[in-house]
Amino acid sequence: MTEVYGLLGRDISYSRSPEIHRVLWGKDIEERDYLLFDTKNLIDFVGRAKAMSDLRGFNVTIPYKQAIIPYLDELEGDALATRAVNTVKCLPSGRWIGYNTDVMGFEALIDGMDLDPSSEIYILGTGGASKAVVRALEKRGRASILISRHPEEGVLCYEDLPTLLSTTFPKVIVNTTPLGSHQLPDQLPPIPYSLLTSEDTLIDLIYSPEETPFMKEGQKVGAKVSNGLTMLWEQARAAQAIWAR
Questions:
Q1: What's the pTM value of the predicted model, to 2 decimals?
Q2: Which of 69, 108, 181, 218 could link 202 by a cystine bridge, Cβ 3.0 to 4.6 Å?
C-alpha cells in the first residue's frame, strides 16, 4: 500500500512542498505520495483524513497551525512550547501527534546567516509561524520583540517602529505575515523602510515569490536579505525524520 502524506492549508496551489518532499524521498518515492489538502473547512478535512487508512502524516500551513490542535491527541517538543503545529504524525492506532519542525527550519536558516550578536530582532506578526521564530531564537539565546497590528501584553504595534528602528544597533526584521506573498503580491509590511541601513537584515518567511517586496526594500539600502526557502526545505527534512520513526 502506498503511504500518503500531504499539506493541509487554504489556497495552497502555489506550494512547493510536494516537489520538495518528493526530492527528499528520492528512490523511495514509489512507495509514497504527497498531496495538497486544500480546504476551507477544517472539520470536513479531519473527518475525511481520519477515514484514510493509508494516511501516515501531513504538514500544516496557514491558517491551520493553531486551529488543528484541538483535533490532535498529543503535542511533542516545540509544538508543546509554541502551541503551533506544522507537522502531524498519524499512528496506526488512529492517534495524531503534533510537532513543530518550523522551529528547526528557522534555526537552520539563521545558522547560515551569521547574524550580528548585538542586533535587535523584530518579528512582524503573531501567528503560528511567528511562534516558531520566537522559539528558535530562544533556543539560540536570542531575545526578540513582537510587532502586530493588534498589540497586547508583550506585543508592540507598528507605530512603535520609528522609535525602535532609530537606534544605532543593527536590526534583524523577520516578516512572518502573508504580506508580499503570491496572494498579496503588492502589499508590504508597514514599517519605516527609510530607517533601514546596510547593517540590517531582513528575513521574509515567504518563498513564493522568491524575491518579495519586503526583501527588495532591504536590497535598496544594501541590507542582507533572505526568503523562507531554506526554512521550507529544512522543516520538510525534519518532518520526514519524524514520519520515519
A1: 0.93
A2: 218
Query: Across the chain, what does the average pLDDT equal?
Result: 95
* Closest to 157 (Cα-Cα) out of 126, 180, 182, 129: 126
Q: Are residues 107 and 212 in the same domain?
A: yes
Which residue pairs, CB below 8 angstroms and at least 24 apart, start in 51-56? 52/4, 53/1, 54/1, 54/2, 54/3, 54/4, 55/4, 55/5, 55/6, 55/90, 56/3, 56/4, 56/5, 56/89, 56/90, 56/243
User: Is 154 strand, coil or helix?
Assistant: coil
Do 128 and 188 fall within a single domain? yes
Helices (H), the chain: 17-25, 42-50, 77-82, 102-111, 128-139, 161-164, 213-220, 229-244
Per-residue pLDDT band at 175 (split at 50, 70, 90): very high
Kindly list the catalytic residues.
65
Contact 37, 45 (CB under 8 A): yes
pLDDT tens digit string along 196-214?
999 999 999 999 999 999 9
Q: What is the pLDDT of residue 27?
A: 78
Residues 52 and 131 in one domain: no
Residue range of the domain that includes 222: 103-231
Q: What burial letters (b/e) apply to 7-32, b meaning 16+ CB within 10 Å?
A: bbbebbeebebbebbeebbeeeeeeb
